Amino acid sequence: MSMSKLGRAALSGAAGLIVGVCAVAPAHAEGQFLVNARLRTELVDQAGLANDATAITLRTRLGYESGDLSGFTFLIEGEHVLHLVDDFNDTINGRPGYPVVADPEAAELNRVQLAFTGFEDTRLTLGRQRIILGDARYVGNVGFRQNEQTFDAFVASTTAIENLNLTYAYLDRAHRIFGDDHPAGELDLDAHAITAAVTAPLGTVTAFAILADVQDAAALSSATYGLNWSGSVAREGQATFGYKLEYAVQSDYGNAPASFDLNMFRAEASLSQNGLSGAIGIESLEGNGVRGFSTPLATLHGYQGWADVFLTTPANGIRDVYGRAGYAFPNPPLGSAMRAMVVYHDFETENGSLDLGSEFDAVLSSQLSEHVGLEFKAAFYDGGDSAIADRTKLWFAITYSR
Q: Among 121, 179, 123, which Cα is nearest to 150's?
């Protein structure tokens, strides 16, 4: 039996295990109900399209997480996305004259998982679950979109060895943001993700490997190996200096239809003091003229600008040089916490240094109460000398969670 079939058989038994554990577990174990709702307006003006997009959507998640049941906990959660105003292309509603807002209507089981914590400093989780490795550059939940990405998976993580954090994940299927009605709404996987993070006085060094054999989209299959070093230096009364360096190599793997060898490099330096922060950085993804360095299981919205122009790396790669400035209000005029941030990106191809445009992003968020938050966000992409269409995106969201 293949690893994929073994994984699917194990995952299909997760619900049965949950029922069995509940049957023998102490009745007094306390659990909690999970509620998350986000009402969001997204406006998009994109050059070359006849219509602007207006999307008003409501995302609701309802679930339940048990208390400790003899070392086991279980979680079940449903997710629903509703269109209140649908003047946009949601990728499945057949509106090609409108800009894409990738929030199709959906009603699905978002998470159903069983976890075991009976071993010291170790957690084992089986089932459909949210997985975010590191800063989600390679594997993430795409949390910005209304329908988040979850995985049918087995994950083992441990901190039993001092200063070492180990994680192994076997990924059997990705339930993507496009929902069950989209032809690419799911990815059939035979994938392994491994991270080993060592904490030292000079920062955290993380080695990682992402081995993804994508059964129904062979061109996405790849093996990625990398090393990340990040940390900060803080002295009393002085600014905190932060740093990040990463290098990764990627090659064909599994059922990939062609051979390739690509590199990725990123570096960032930051300063922060008294609520003010700033950073400069570069991320370079190599391309060979046919394909670029890709991370199809990642949370891509956080990289190469919030306008999501470069969700797929160009064939000649991309070099993103950016600067970021932020401010956390010490006495917020609204709510208990308020943050503002602006980001500027300059893009060009990694091969040939051809102009790919630039982007300015801004966000203002406020935590109104323990459970309610507000967010205003904007992205302005200018295609420059490239053939890529200019676009402006604006968001306003209110979120309730508990």
A: 179
